[in-house]
Each structure stands twice: as structure tokens, then as C-alpha cells.
Amino acid sequence: MLDFLIDILMLCQYCHKSVSFFLCPRLIWRYFVQHTSTNLD
User: Fold this and answer.
1) How many other CB atoms are found less than 10 A from the CB of residue 30?
2) Integer Cα distance of 38 and 21 in angstroms
3) What is the mean pLDDT of the chain?
4) pTM of the shown model
């Protein structure tokens, strides 16, 4: 779980640097959904 949170923080940093700020929540949400859905299976 900790690795997952670190990944999100890294993703958000990456978004702030190179991608539009408004895309960041969407990317994180997509990543989160993928992560949780694979964990549920």
C-alpha cells in the first residue's frame, strides 16, 4: 500500500512538472482505479 501512495506522489509531481495541472487528478484517479481493481481480483 505504501508503494502505491509513493507512486501517486511521483505521478503528481510528474504531472506538475510536465503535464497540465488539471490532468493530474484524472491520471491519479485512473491509476487508482486500475490499482484497486487489480487488487480486488
Assistant:
1) 11
2) 27
3) 71
4) 0.38
Q: Looking up cell 495541472, which residue turns up?
A: 21
Residue 7 cell numbers, joined: 507512486
Which residue carries 481480483 as its cell? 41
The C-alpha cell that represents 1 in the structure block = 500500500
Closest-CA residue to 15 (of 26, 7, 23): 23
**Section 1-25 average pLDDT:** 69
Residues 6+ apart with CB under 8 A from 32: 8
Could you identify the residue written with the cell 485512473? 30
Statement: residue 17 has pLDDT above 80: no
